[in-house]
Amino acid sequence: MTYPETNIQRISILPKVNKLFEERIKRMPLESEERFVKLISVGFKEASLDSPTFRASVNFTNQQIQQVEAWLNGIYTALTLIQNGMGKVEQVANSIEMLIVPDVVSTSGVIDNDYTQTAMVSTGEGLKKIFLEYSRLLHFDTRILKLVENLVKNELNAYKIQRMQFETIQLRYDKVSSLLHKMEKTKPLEQIKEESYQLYEVRKQYLESSLELYYRMARLTNSINFTLIEIANSFWSGSLNPDMLQLLGIAKVQENVKRIYGWKTQVEQSSIDMMRNIQRTKTQTEIIMTASMKPPNRLSDYDCSLLSYTNVFLEGEPGIRSEKHGWLYMKTSFQNKVEWVKRWVFVKDGLFGIFSLSDDKLSVQETNKIGLGLINFKFAPGEERRFCFELKTLRVSIMLQAETLLELKTWMTVLKIQKEKILNKELNHCFVKCELFPPMADFASNMSTYIDTELTTIKGLEHIKAFYKGLPCSPLYQRIHKGVFINTPVTTSLSVESILFQALFSPPSFPNAVTANIWGSVNWGMYFFPEVKRDIYSVSKKEFYPLFYPVDLQLADIELKSLFEVIFVDGEKTMLTMKCNWIPNSEQELYGRSFLTQDHIYFYMNHMGFVSLIRKKLADLINIECDSKGDYDILKLYYSSGYVSKIKIFLDSGMTVQKKINLLVLNKRRQVPRSLQSLLSDFDNIDELKVQEQAESTVQRGNTIPSIVHPIPTNMEDPINIDYTKDFHLIWEKVYDSPPKVLFHAFLGDNVDILHKVVPLVETCGNKTARTSWHAGRKPPRLERKVYPFIGMTSISSKKLEFTQVIEQMVNNKYYEFYQIDQTLSIGGVVFCTETRVTIQMVSSKRSRLRIYLRPIFNSPKFNLFRPLYYLLFKSRVTKLDKELQVMLKQLGSSNEIVKALQSFGPISQVEQDVQLVPPGDLAEVVEIRGAVLFLFLTKKGVVKALNFSFGVLSTIRLVIASTISIVTANHVILFSLSLSLILNLFLMGQTVSSYYTFHKTSTLLSNYMKETPYLLQRSIQLTDIKNQISSRPHINSTSDVVYQQFINTSFLFNFPNVQLQDYSDIETSESAKILKQSFDSIGIRRNHLLVQLRILNHAEQQIAEAEWRNWLVSESRRCNQVRKLDRDITDGFQETISSIMGYCQQCSDHLEQVYAHSEKLL
Questions:
Q1: Which of 85, 617, 623, 886 could form a disulfide with 638 if both were Cys (CB 3.0 to 4.6 A apart)?
Q2: Phi-psi category of residue 429: left, alpha or beta, with phi > 0 → left and psi -120 to 50 → alpha
Q3: Is the pLDDT of residue 205 over 90?
Q4: What is the pTM of this model?
Q5: Among 416, 333, 326, residue whose Cα is nearest residue 378
Q6: 828 three-state secondary structure
Q7: Domain PH: where (predicted)?
Q8: Distance (Å, whole) CA 859 – CA 302
Q9: Quick check: 39 pLDDT over 80?
Q10: What is residue 202's predicted lDDT score, i.e. its pLDDT?
Q11: Judging by DSSP bridges, how do beta strands 910-911 and 633-639 pair with one another?
Q12: CB 440 within 8 A of CB 457
């Protein structure tokens, strides 16, 4: 996604975008480059610049929305009338029954019962059916009334509110900008700075409102289109009678509307994603532009007195470019009154020009463009306004005013660079010293101020439009003005005229009014193809269309060249245009319009303001596939680089488009390409054939009873398992690690042909094989071709054999079925032909199953004895073919197998007519294989088997004789060594067996041990005085009480290791004992845990006490050291005290040594 980029210095955002895109493309690999799809939001770019194109476009779109609103109100009224009228139609249908004669009248004798009554009854019933069918045809879903109402009340009202806010803020912004530019130089700098910041705040609001308006326009446009499609579909989604639709000739209308509704359903999801992109783009654009237009903080940047003729240029600033676009105020006069008007000015490619809005503010117009070789420029410090500079020519002087000091220096620098390039002849085209007029009077500025009038020449321009109307393609002129043209990136009231102009002239590379009304203030289409370098300075005259070129294609060609004129090659003509969805990768689906020329495929997208241009070379295409879905056909395009893209087609026939593209691809491969008229004639034949097939299928559907036989579905969602073993003999079945499509092209591609090699007894030379192209078979959609392999004289009586190959089923990369019928052969009086049938079925995305069936057809059943031998010969050939096939697949590698297979093996190229390619010589009906060939073959097989058997027997005899001789002639040492070796081997074998069983037993024991549930051992501490606690009770005599003694002997309280809970009399007391024992055990475990913690605490407390004792001894020792260091003069007179202190200190030292010794002992 490409978003608007700005230079903080506001020099130019355009070259920077181009440079960044070129650098990104260079860093991308080839496949990523092809998959990369660049989208440019032209509307947001123009809105961020507030260009004249943006203002004209939003005004024109607003006018169109008002017309659409009136149209929607009319639709709502019409639908309401239809809904109310349906009840009356049903009443009329019921009243028709009054035409039927009552029973009373029919028996009166007045009415003839045989004819009159029958006529009235039949007429009444028929008219009732007509009215009821009419009511059914006009029936629609009444929910669309609510849909239209919500669209008008919600989306349209939201847009109107935003439009009113935009107009208010736009007026305020223009007013504040004008007031800021009017401020004189003598004003205090602080006041000027304050006004600049006020304009900055208003500009931010205006930018936000502009982007929001564009977002609302894109959203509203999308909603209107989807609503109108819902309205159209509501009339065709009911239970309509197909026969009635066919009778009225509107069955095709129903089909088209349903496919369009399917397109709408698919695009809705992508529109939601696109809406998120619009919101993201809107936010990013607002952030970037807000940062770029912030006024400077220094007061010196507002002081004009610091400027001189020498310091008005940017010296050494990065990012300076040689082009500039933007708004400036121009000094002019109107009715002898001096005025400053706002104009869009540009300097590019050595030219100076001005854009302005038309009087109705619905289009962009221009003045003459003047070459800078005719212009002198200078800084204008004497002007009463700030930041002014002057441009002078021989006949006019133009005074311009910039908004800021940086803007002034930028303009002056760009003008200086352009002038230096002209003087150094870096810009040497003829326009640098010329004055260019507007291309047509419609594009010439109609502003009536003095400078605008002086800079605009309109004389002699009307003849161009008159010349247009006189062209042979005048119906094209009328048709374009009916509004039948493509949606341009931006739309103004002159967009149609701009497309018209491009039918005759190629617009130049520099900005001009023609491009401004199609692309914007800058041709944004150039940034899709930055690598294209071409001289487009000259406005060249285009060639007229030939008489055989249809008007529809003329219109499409003009549309194409107005969009892709930057890269369009002279001589290319549009051959086909189609509405489609382009799928460049798995994440994007772009919908727009595709154009097909003799050399390229072009795609243009303009969806919700995002524009994209794509061009692909037809010469790079290696295969095109078509698959039909429910509401659309899908084309898959394979390129030589490995890139694969898809195209969804909703309104056209995918098969027809595929045939046309294939026709152009084959034409590109011809040494002498065919003419445009010849290709268009073939296109017409393809269209006529399609119309004929549709007519035949319609008749067939009307006359055919639905079959109970289900054909193979094209979508192939269910697995296929077709077995031909009932009629054929299965010779080969194997699964290959390649997709089915790879195997299919390996057998039948244009560059290879290996299927004919399976025929036994015939030696062919594959590199000299002649074959026809694939063409429609006798039973469409089958494809057929003839193969004529080169045959040596030693094999058969004729140099030629003919093989007919037929493709019967093709389901893309899922299932293929084809067969080959050989020419009738004769060998030893046995006349037969062979049908070889091959099926390729998908097993997985990277694997496929190949089956080869064989059915020899003999002229007489008595020759069936030859069948087993023929199967054996055939299988030997298939085995040889399998080896060749594996080599071919191995060379493809494991990545991009399908594309590589298409490159190596070739596509399935189809032509409309059967081109018979027969080598020189006659083709015999029955080709006789020489009997010597079969004799030599059988002899070879027999000799080989006999030799193998003989060598086997001789080898066995040699081994027996050698063994016997070695036993007879051996001495005792050798025999002893052999015996010792035998005994040693037996001993080692016994050790091995013993070790094995020992290891096996150990392993089994360890495995069983590991499977057992582990026991968790826990330590429990019980009190020894628990007996005393019980015996201390007054009613128990611990020595003489028999009950108490028995309790001591059996209870778990005193017999913990040997307790037996089964000693209890019943289940209830036993369960209670279990619970009590568990509680008793848990108390012991907790007591152990608490005692451990208590020991830890006691140990910690002891360590703390010892640490404190050691610390206190160290303190006292340090005090003693201080006393020992006292001078003798100080201690005189205190000898007794000092002696007692020294004794105390000695004790401290002794204790400290003991502490250290104890610590070392612990360590």
A1: 623
A2: beta
A3: yes
A4: 0.69
A5: 416
A6: coil
A7: 321-420
A8: 107
A9: yes
A10: 95
A11: unpaired
A12: no
Q: What are phi and psi of 76, to 5 degrees?
A: -60, -40
Which residue bears the tokens 């045959």? 791
* Residue 319 reports pLDDT greater than 60: no
Instruction: Give the C-alpha separation, 55 to 357, whole Å.
Output: 8
Distances (CA, A) of 967 to 953, 981, 983: 22, 16, 19
Structure tokens at 527: 């940034």
Q: How many angstroms separate the CA atoms of 1131 and 1080, rounded?
A: 73
**Position 63, amino acid:** Q
d(CA 765, CA 1107): 102
Does the pLDDT at position 618 exceed 80?
Answer: yes
Residues in contact with 886: Cβ distance below 8 Å, sequence separation at least 6, in sequence order? none
| Closest-CA residue to 907 (of 625, 600, 599, 597) | 625
Is residue 156 a contact partner of residue 220, using CB atoms and an 8 Å limit?
Answer: yes
Name the nearest CA neighbour of 826 among 792, 846, 782, 856.
856
Q: Are 808 and 711 contacting, i.e. CB atoms less than 8 angstroms apart?
A: no
Distance CA 686, CA 661 (A): 11
CA distance 603 to 580: 9
Q: Considering only 199-208, 488-497, 995-1004, which range has the smallest mean pLDDT? A: 995-1004
Region of 1142 on the Ramachandran plot (φ > 0 left; ψ -120 to 50 alpha; else beta): alpha
Q: What is the pLDDT of residue 748?
A: 86
Rounded Cα distance between 601 and 554, Å, is 17
Q: Is the peptide bond before 781 cis (omega within 30 degrees of 0)?
A: yes
Query: Is 261 a residue whose pLDDT tops 90?
Result: no
Per-residue pLDDT reduced to its tens digit, 1000-1036: 888 888 777 777 666 566 666 666 655 555 655 565 5
Answer left, alpha or beta for residue 109, where phi above 0 means left and psi between -120 and 50 means alpha. left
* Sign for the pseudo-dihedral over CA of 442, 443, 449, 451: negative
DSSP conformation class of 854: E
Non-local (6+) Cβ contacts of 867 within 8 A are: 856, 858
CA-CA distance, 378 to 1112, in Å (whole number)?
A: 93
Amino acid at 230: E
Which segments of 905-1063 are extended strands (E)? 910-911, 926-928
- Name the nearest CA neighbour of 224 among 71, 121, 105: 71
Kindly report the length of the chain. Answer: 1163
Contact 271, 590 (CB under 8 A): no
Residues 572-607: b if buried by 16+ CB within 10 A, e if exposed: bbbbbbbebbbbbeeeebbbbbbbbbbbbbbbbbbb
Over the stretch 738-795, which tens digit does the pLDDT of each residue have?
888 888 888 888 888 788 777 776 666 555 677 787 877 666 667 888 887 766 544 4
Q: What is the pLDDT of residues 377-422, one digit of tens each?
A: 999 998 989 999 999 998 899 999 999 999 999 999 999 999 988 8
User: Which one-letter DSSP state was computed for residue 1018?
Assistant: -
| CB 836, CB 737: distance < 8 Å | no
- CA-nearest of 400, 351, 358 to 380 is 400
pLDDT for 150-179, tens place per residue? 888 888 999 999 999 999 999 999 999 999
- Name all contacts of 1072-1077 with Cβ < 8 Å and 24+ positions apart: 1076/1052, 1077/1052
Task: Identify the residue whose tokens are 């082009």.
Answer: 323
Identify the burial level of 697 via C-beta atoms within 10 angstroms of its C-beta, where 0-12 means exposed, 13-18 middle and 19 or more buried.
Answer: exposed
pLDDT confidence of residue 1114: 86
CA distance 863 to 866: 6
Phi, psi dihedrals of residue 1036, rounded to the nearest 5°: -115, 130
Exposure b/e, 985-997, CB count within 10 A at least 16 = b: eeeeeeeeeeeee
Q: What are phi and psi of 759, to 5 degrees?
A: -70, 120
Rounded distance between C-alpha atoms, residue 1 and residue 41, angstroms: 9
Supply the DSSP symbol for 823. P
Task: Copy the structure tokens of residue 317.
Answer: 């600033």
